[in-house]
């Protein structure tokens, strides 16, 4: 090993604490990039492969009842390559372990062959075919949640009849990677099950012989999706079609996409922060090293080492630290990436998971980190290269200090000497102090950015479950009906209050913008569902015209007073022009509201109901559900408390690990920055501090001078960090908004408090480590040597 | 003349062993010496003779391996770090070859650094006037010459009216005429404040200004030379 390399190795070992601190910051940046990019590509690959192997359709449409012969006409639409029809119906399941009913979605499968599209992945009894009419295949998550196995039976309320179904297998499907029951926010594996049944049995049950109510299509590579959608809509319109849609509007796929987008965003925001902070730290360290080794540099040159070999020596020093970080980051990223992907795998339901860390991410992240490190060291190394040997061997002139700005304005008259030292040191290297503060600010900001999600989600839940959706239970009828009156629902045992609603599938158009949504008709004076304005104040639904949620209004570029096109896709299917008379704020989904009578008027029908919002006496829940399970006309029961509980459970599971992840990495930045800054200060000022000890200052007084500087830097960074965090949170809110849900921009004071507390704790811990070094200063050795 | 005074420091069988790797280096091999109040003493000897080690132990910067040191009847060798810090704070002024001023503090503030924590200090201005720097008080170290910086160090050391002043090669980094200015300051302090002053040097010329010269060699006192009269510092040159 060359002598210079030996020196390099020992120099690195001497400042191993700093090397590790910087290495970890780099490692964190790289690991985050690899983990996020790795999970992202793995999940995307997995999804793509899954879609491909199981023939996930490209376009989906539902109708009331369409003749099977229509399938051929759909297949003839240019761009359509394959068509599959089926029967789908939501039913109520009576699960023995639950007092409340669960919702089941029954889907038909052709007997004796694979469907043309949307295959399922059979898990246990692959070869077992449908034989008897009441045999079903159940989706795996639901089966697992209820410990159901082939041979077990479940009771369903199908088309008004209680039927006992026998499970022959469990399965997964690309349609339900993320399986959400209508009206819910998150998948509920206990309360929402998918049941596949033989087509012929279902035709008989629902009276759909020779007919279907769902159709899906795959497209050719050059197909125009919108064209196919429009053509399909036209073909299905006479049969009660409620609007075709592509994959991007498919619920499960849309959720996956929004998750991918979040990963993508985070993988772009976070790693650069870490790498830049590391670059700054490397810059300080290499500058300090070159300062202290001035004489050695002179000596090497005097002995005949070339300028470039001296330069390369110091460059290697920086690259070695960065290299350690890169390797650590790769290892950490590889390990965590697999874990993270597995975690996603438990959340999203895939029959297989392809974890493929992308080699390009490794290469690019490594090269970028080394490049940034070299850039950070460039000017310092150039200084070493240009140092004249004769000059280098004379001691540098003492640093020039001035009175700090505060003192010049007379603010610091009563400060003691140690306080003046702190202030003057900070103002002697203002850029370094500023960047150090900024580094710590980023960790504060990062913490706020991750912790605020909890506030935001709490606010969303509060608004959704307590301010707008105030019913305990939502009953959904199989078909819109006049037969069930408010009084009927009111008479179910335990019901305290019932309000009927009407939901009508529509397509809203404003110029080029169009959205497929539901208009929800609510009675005047309804209390169980409330509408809120952007300031969270209750607004009353106008007696005429539409009220759109703000996200929907934004997507349609509609303002209050505009008149928009409304294509109703039910009943007489009128095309109407209806004014928008109000905008309400909702964080979940896209909805339009209208007075129920006004809705009936424009549809030219008598007021009917699609369901009812119900408040139930908490003591009579069991009785209420007993009754509900027997009611034939129901296809779904949504329980607010269950939905809320499920949401909280999932958030607890995912948020806790995500937040600990962020706290760890944010603290890493804080510790790295503060530790390095303290070590550099200590190295620059060991002599000064030792002098103070000799003069009779106690260890804690001396440590106070050094730690005081860190305290000032940390304190300055806190408000800046809070502002940064505010901005980062705002940009997250901005970028994460999808049609499915938006995050409200709410940061509780306690979130700022926690972020500040965590960073102060990290600073104090780091300070304590450095203070130990101050205590162990070798007074004699320090004072005997020339600086 | 020295016999009539009280003893400031008394050492008995003072030994200091440095453990460097597997070898033991004896810096002091049983030094027993009495140092009197108000005397000006010069420690003379070649490099490695143990001068600095002795000074550092007397000043409470270093611990002896064995033997004992008394300061006015208190046993320093039995003291812990906190006690030694308090001892330095109350009684000892140090002056080093490389000044060791705080670069971020002005001359006045460097002195104030000490007066702020001392029991009965003189004012920083008074201390700086004593070394003839009254017109340089608001200069930062980077704005002062070497001799001026060392005089600030002297002012800083004496401002708290210490009982002892320990000087390790105070003129080592200075030219002869600047060095004399510093020695004059030391002389004045010793005379006017009665501060026991111990000066390390390997410059024999300086020893003429002292009451006694203690020669150290190989970690031991080789001999002691007493001066009936002290030569004024301004007459010294080297």
Report on this structure.
The complex is a heterodimer of chains A (about 775) and B (about 240). In chain A, about 55% of the residues lie in helices and about 20% in strands. Chain A contains 22 helices and 22 strands. In chain A, the strands form four sheets. Chain A has a six-stranded mixed barrel. In chain A, strands 13-14-20-17-19-18 form a six-stranded mixed barrel. In chain A, a hairpin with a 6-residue loop joins strand 18 (about 565-570) and strand 19. In chain A, helix 19 (about 640-695) runs parallel beside helix 21. The mean pLDDT of chain A is about 90. Chain B is α/β, with parallel strands linked by helices. Chain B has one domain: Rossmann fold. In chain B, about 30% of the residues lie in helices and about 30% in strands. Chain B has six helices and ten strands, in the order E-E-E-H-E-E-H-E-H-H-H-E-H-E-E-E. Chain B has helices at about 50-60, 80-90, 105-115, 125-130, 145-160, 175-195; strands at about 5-20, 25-35, 40-45, 65-70, 75, 90-95, 165-170, 195-200, 210-215, 220-225. In chain B, strands 6-7-8-3-9-10 form a six-stranded mixed sheet, with helices on both faces. In chain B, a hairpin with a 2-residue loop joins strand 9 and strand 10 (about 220-225). Chain B is globular and about 50 Å long. The relative contact order of chain B is 0.19. The interface of A and B includes residues 400, 420 and 692 of A.
């Amino acid at each position: 090993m060359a002598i210079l390399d030996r020196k390099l190795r020992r120099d690195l070992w001497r400042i191993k604490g700093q090397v590790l601190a910087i290495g970890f910051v780099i490692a964190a940046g790289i690991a985050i990039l690899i983990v996020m990019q790795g999970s992202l590509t793995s999940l995307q690959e997995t999804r793509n492969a899954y879609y491909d192997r199981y023939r996930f359709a490209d376009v989906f449409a539902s109708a009331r009842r369409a003749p099977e012969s229509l399938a051929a006409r759909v297949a003839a639409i240019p761009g359509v390559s394959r068509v599959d029809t089926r029967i789908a119906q939501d039913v109520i399941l009576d699960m023995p372990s639950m007092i409340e009913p669960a919702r089941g979605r029954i889907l038909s499968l052709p007997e004796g062959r694979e469907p043309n599209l949307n295959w399922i992945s059979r898990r246990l009894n692959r070869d077992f075919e449908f034989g008897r009419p009441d045999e079903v295949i159940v989706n795996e998550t639901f089966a697992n949640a209820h410990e159901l196995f082939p041979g077990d039976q479940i009771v369903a309320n199908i088309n008004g009849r209680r039927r006992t179904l026998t499970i022959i297998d469990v399965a997964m499907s690309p349609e339900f990677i993320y399986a959400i029951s209508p009206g819910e926010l998150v998948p509920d594996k206990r309360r929402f099950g998918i049941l596949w049944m033989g087509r012929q049995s279902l035709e008989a049950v629902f009276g759909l012989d020779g007919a279907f109510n769902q159709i899906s299509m795959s497209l050719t590579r050059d197909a125009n999706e919108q064209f196919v959608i429009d053509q399909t809509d036209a073909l299905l319109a006479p049969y009660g079609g409620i609007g075709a849609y592509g994959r991007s509007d498919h619920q499960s796929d849309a959720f996956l996409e929004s998750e991918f987008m979040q990963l993508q965003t985070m993988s772009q925001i976070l790693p650069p922060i870490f790498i830049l902070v590391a670059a700054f730290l490397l810059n300080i360290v290499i500058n300090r090293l070159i300062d202290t080794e001035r004489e050695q540099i002179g000596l090497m040159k005097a002995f005949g080492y070339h300028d470039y070999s001296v330069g390369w020596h110091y460059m290697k020093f920086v690259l070695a630290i960065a290299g350690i970080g890169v390797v650590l980051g790769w290892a950490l990223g590889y390990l965590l990436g697999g874990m993270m992907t597995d975690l996603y795998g438990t959340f999203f339901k895939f029959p297989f998971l392809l974890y493929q860390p992308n080699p390009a991410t490794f290469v690019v992240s490594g090269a970028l980190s080394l490049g940034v490190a070299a850039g950070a060291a460039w000017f310092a190394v150039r200084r070493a290269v240009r140092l004249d040997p004769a000059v280098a061997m004379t001691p540098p002139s003492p640093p020039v200090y001035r009175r700090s700005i505060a003192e010049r304005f007379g603010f610091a008259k009563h400060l003691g000497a140690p306080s003046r030292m702190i202030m003057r040191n900070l103002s002697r290297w203002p850029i370094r102090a500023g960047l150090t503060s900024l580094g710590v600010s980023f960790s504060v900001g990062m913490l706020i950015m991750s912790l605020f999600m909890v506030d935001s989600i709490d606010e969303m839940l509060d608004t959704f479950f307590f301010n707008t959706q105030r019913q305990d239970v939502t009953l959904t009828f199989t078909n819109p009906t006049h037969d069930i009156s408010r009084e009927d629902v009111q008479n179910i045992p335990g019901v305290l209050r019932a309000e009927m609603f009407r939901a009508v599938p529509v397509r809203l158009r404003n110029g080029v913008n169009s959205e497929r949504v539901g208009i929800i008709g609510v009675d005047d004076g309804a209390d169980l569902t409330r509408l809120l304005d952007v300031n969270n104040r209750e607004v009353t639904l106008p007696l005429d015209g539409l009220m759109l949620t703000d996200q929907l209004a934004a997507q349609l570029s509609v303002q209050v007073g505009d008149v928009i096109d409304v294509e109703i896709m039910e009943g007489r299917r009128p095309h109407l022009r209806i004014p928008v008379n109000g905008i309400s704020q909702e964080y979940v989904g896209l909805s339009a509201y209208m007075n129920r009578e006004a809705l009936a008027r424009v549809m030219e029908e008598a007021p009917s109901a699609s369901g009812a919002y119900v408040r139930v006496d908490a003591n009579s829940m069991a009785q209420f559900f007993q009754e509900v399970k027997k009611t034939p006309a129901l296809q779904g029961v949504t329980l607010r408390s269950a939905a809320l509980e499920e949401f909280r459970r999932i958030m607890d599971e995912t948020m806790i690990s995500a937040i600990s992840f962020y706290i760890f990495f944010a603290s890493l930045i804080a510790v790295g920055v503060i530790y390095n800054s303290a070590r550099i200060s200590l190295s620059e000022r060991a002599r000064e501090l030792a002098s103070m000890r000799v003069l009779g200052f106690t260890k804690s007084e001396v440590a106070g001078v050094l730690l005081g500087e860190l305290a000032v830097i940390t304190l300055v960074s806190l408000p800046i960090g809070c502002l940064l965090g505010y901005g980062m949170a705002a940009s997250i809110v901005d970028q994460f908004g999808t049609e499915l849900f938006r995050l409200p921009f709410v940061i509780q004071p306690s979130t700022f408090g926690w972020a500040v507390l965590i960073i102060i704790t990290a600073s104090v811990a780091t300070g304590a480590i450095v203070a130990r070094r101050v205590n162990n200063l070798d007074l004699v050795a320090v004072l005997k040597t020339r600086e | 003349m020295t016999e009539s005074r009280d003893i400031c420091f008394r050492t008995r069988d003072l030994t200091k062993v440095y453990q460097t790797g597997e070898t033991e280096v004896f810096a002091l091999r049983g030094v027993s010496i009495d140092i009197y109040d108000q005397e000006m003493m010069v420690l003379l000897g070649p490099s490695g003779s143990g001068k600095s080690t002795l000074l550092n132990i007397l000043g409470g910067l270093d611990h002896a391996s064995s033997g004992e040191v008394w300061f006015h009847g208190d046993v320093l060798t039995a003291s812990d770090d906190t006690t030694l810090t308090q001892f330095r704070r109350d009684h000892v002024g140090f002056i080093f070859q490389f000044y060791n001023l705080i670069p971020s503090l002005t001359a006045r503030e460097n002195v104030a650094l000490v007066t702020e924590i001392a029991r009965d200090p003189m004012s920083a201005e008074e201390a700086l006037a004593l070394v003839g720097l009254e017109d340089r008080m608001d200069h930062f170290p980077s704005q002062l010459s070497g001799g001026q910086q060392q005089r600030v160090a002297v002012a800083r050391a004496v401002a708290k009216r210490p009982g002892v002043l320990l000087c390790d090669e105070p003129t080592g980094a200075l030219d002869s005429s600047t060095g004399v200015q510093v020695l004059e300051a030391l002389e004045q302090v010793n005379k006017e404040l009665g501060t026991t002053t111990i000066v390390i040097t390997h410059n024999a010329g300086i020893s003429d200004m002292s009451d006694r010269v203690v020669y150290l060699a190989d970690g031991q006192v080789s001999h002691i030379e007493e001066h009936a009269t002290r030569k004024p510092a301004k007459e010294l040159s080297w």
